[in-house]
Design a protein that fits this description.
about 210 residues, alpha+beta, Helix Hairpins, two-stranded antiparallel ribbon, 2 strands, about 15% strand
Length: about 210
């Protein structure tokens, strides 16, 4: 921050700053409100997808208790072929959006594994998709939290520091200029009286 210039040009500069800050602040406040609303929705979405993941796990455990059979090797049964994550702009923040998760099922001999392996493969594919959705949703929350924190900091900077500082500077300069005007008037009156006395003295000394 540069040294405060106590002059009319300095006063004009501080007024311009003040007008700028007052124009910017409402847009910052609006963005903060929008981000807060989006963050609230994103957090609720994360709670929902996490709850759905838990429900899916319970459902799989109830429907397929045979998964506890350690003698059956299901490692590598389902694998991820591709994950399509795209980007969307939400209130000026670039957020990931899960579009699709493509999974493949490894070849296995029908006679070598029990009949319910097909059902397990289908449920595993759902679980892979669900976990990817949890990760993407959590990342959306994180990015929105960062954006909300930044815009809140900027809003506080304008609202609590820059605007009050400009107001204080304007007040200081006005007081200084008013004092300078009064001092100028006083000096002018003193100078006038001195000149009058000098003139009278000259007239009195005239023969």
């Amino acid at each position: 921050m540069g040294k405060l210039v106590l002059s009319k040009s300095g006063l004009q500069k501080q007024r311009e700053n003040m007008r700028l800050y007052e124009r910017v602040l409402p847009s910052l406040e609006l963005k903060r409100m929008q981000l807060t609303a989006e963050l609230k929705r994103a957090r609720q979405a994360l709670v929902d997808v996490q709850a759905e993941t838990e429900r899916l796990l319970r459902r799989v455990s109830e429907q397929l208790p045979m998964l506890a059979d350690g003698e059956i090797d299901l490692a590598g049964l389902v694998y991820v072929e591709a994950i399509d994550i795209r980007e969307e702009n939400v209130v000026g923040v670039k957020l990931p959006k899960l579009v699709e998760v493509r999974c493949g099922v490894a070849d296995y001999a029908m006679l070598a594994r029990p009949h319910w392996v097909d059902t397990v493969a289908a449920q595993l594919k759902r679980m892979v998709t669900q976990k990817a959705l949890v990760q993407v949703t959590a990342e959306r929350v994180r990015l929105l939290e960062v954006a909300a924190r930044k815009v809140t900091q900027r809003t506080n900077l304008f609202e609590k520091i820059l605007i009050p500082q400009a107001q204080g500077n304007i007040r200081k300069i006005r007081i200084y200029l008013a004092d300078a005007d009064r001092a100028s008037v006083v000096r002018s009156k003193i100078t006038k009286r001195i000149r009058q006395k000098q003139a009278q003295a000259l007239l009195g000394a005239t023969p």
